[in-house]
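Why predict the complex rather than its parts? Because the way molecules touch one another can change local conformation, and only a joint prediction can capture that. The input here totals 712 residues.
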Amino acid sequence: MQLAHGAVETPIFMPVGTQGSVKTLHPDELDLLGAQIILGNTYHLWLRPGHELIRDFGGLHGFASWDKPILTDSGGFQVWSLAKLRKITEQGVRFQNHLDGAKMLLTPELSMEIQAGLGSDIAMLFDECPPYPCEKRYAAESLGLTTRWARRCKDWVSENQPRSGDGPQRHFGIVQGSIWAELREQSARELVELDFDGYAIGGVSVGEPEEEMFRAIDHSVPFLPEDKPRYAMGLGTPPQILEMIGRGVDMFDCVMPTRVARHGQAFTLDGPIHIKNLEFERDSGPLCESADPHVARFSRAYIRHLFRAGEILALRLLSFHNLHFLLRLTALAREAIHDGNFLEFKESFTRRYTKA
Amino acid sequence: MQLAHGAVETPIFMPVGTQGSVKTLHPDELDLLGAQIILGNTYHLWLRPGHELIRDFGGLHGFASWDKPILTDSGGFQVWSLAKLRKITEQGVRFQNHLDGAKMLLTPELSMEIQAGLGSDIAMLFDECPPYPCEKRYAAESLGLTTRWARRCKDWVSENQPRSGDGPQRHFGIVQGSIWAELREQSARELVELDFDGYAIGGVSVGEPEEEMFRAIDHSVPFLPEDKPRYAMGLGTPPQILEMIGRGVDMFDCVMPTRVARHGQAFTLDGPIHIKNLEFERDSGPLCESADPHVARFSRAYIRHLFRAGEILALRLLSFHNLHFLLRLTALAREAIHDGNFLEFKESFTRRYTKA
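Output of the joint prediction:
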């Protein structure tokens, strides 16, 4: 995938930099991790420090000193998950923000304008994400709104021609439709008809069982063009990511690796561990046999000590490691796909990870 | 100064790694900073994770993955400042620790044994630090105890011959005597008589006015050998450090640079700034014109945003910068001493820093 700030190989995991930094990490470490593209959250950056300020500092690339690709979400999901007193109308979403409770209105046009100010390589269209579970009628109406908003986003983009660095900003539509196959198909077809640069599957990882999540993917992917990237938003565990790569998904993002890190959890090839557990008190081994030297130079005993003592270095090392684990996983998946043995790789990884 | 884990140029500032990590930083960043020696706190590491565990991991060097010199304090000062229900006897200090309130006893011999387990290049003798202000009689009696404890430390060292890596561990005595010139002289003479590898001036930065602090230095330094390092414990601001270098001090440590960083304060050549202030909202300049590229690539506006948003990267950048500022300051002081223009350098730096 060729973007304004460079090429991105797929399948790829995108570290999340909600407020303009991937939590606990310096951009030098993102380079060390081999991160090819990171995410910024439109809702957070709009509220603080504001997209106009960021635009004046050369967009999010200049402001955060990151010169590789960036994807921004539309802000819709955060309004849904963080804001209060949310009211959806045809025009957009009215809400009170989670910082100071101020009343605000986010519309498709404003979401596009904010993302244009952030100057991301890929901007997501403003959508409505139905909760899980929801009535089919609600899902159908919501889907209609998402399509009409997609058209308004497209109109804004046609008129304003937003840029990212030296190239055009790319725009991805978001397939909704909750758990209903025919609604997913309808949503995908309507968006493809509007012709975007890529397509995401939204409304997943919102509390539904794992099988429903995979079904939502399966009900969407066949109706999306083969030659454009497909992105499953907000996912997932290491085995879920492999499962979805197998089902045709190219891009992933999730706050989980850095969030669980801050609670002491580390991915390992044998499944996740909690570093604060007593069993690691005298463990002289590295966090994981696949850990990067940046982390592997320290023993589990040392990282456990730092974590228990409340030292920030523990959060850094665990965050770095969990991102390294997922970036390595998607790199190995690319290699396996290239070598024609992806299914074998997926099964062997998952068997060990889940101790199945 | 040649130590078991390498040479240290003086005058030098030593970043403090209380619990086995210099707060927020990775050892790679300490290398980038040019840190030549760091500090570990005996009291904290004894309580958690314990010096026996650290000894089994190759001492603090192996445990924390740091192969350059380390100095450990004696634990006496932390017992004094952090522990509860402290009771001093000839034998040692009984107290309740600040973590779980357990009753503990720290003696000169145990302090030496813990520091031997930590395997530091320089171990500090166990002393009694009188409060400020205190009665002269108390200071005199306390000084007597410090000398008797120094003798017991020396005996333990002679008997046990502690090592640091491939070389012998070095031991520094601590001059006490509060604000009285004759007590400082007495303390210095008694310690020099016992013959240690270096000498520290203790009982400073305990709440006394700055002039008293400088007087304590002036009352001690003349009685310490010219050919052994002199260390002022727990100091100080950038101008204070230059002032004390001028008065013959070679070594400094202080938690202040990283502590104030976590509260948003950054050193600059024009004095300290508070990054959260509104004046930096749109400031595109670096934190300080002398900042290292690791920090200077970011604008003040960006660091301010990160700090206000509670992002750990802000604490990292400010901590890194403040340590860089002091390490650069002592490096420039060495250069000026070498070039014979130290007084000029000190005055010009201080004039600008204090806006005098």
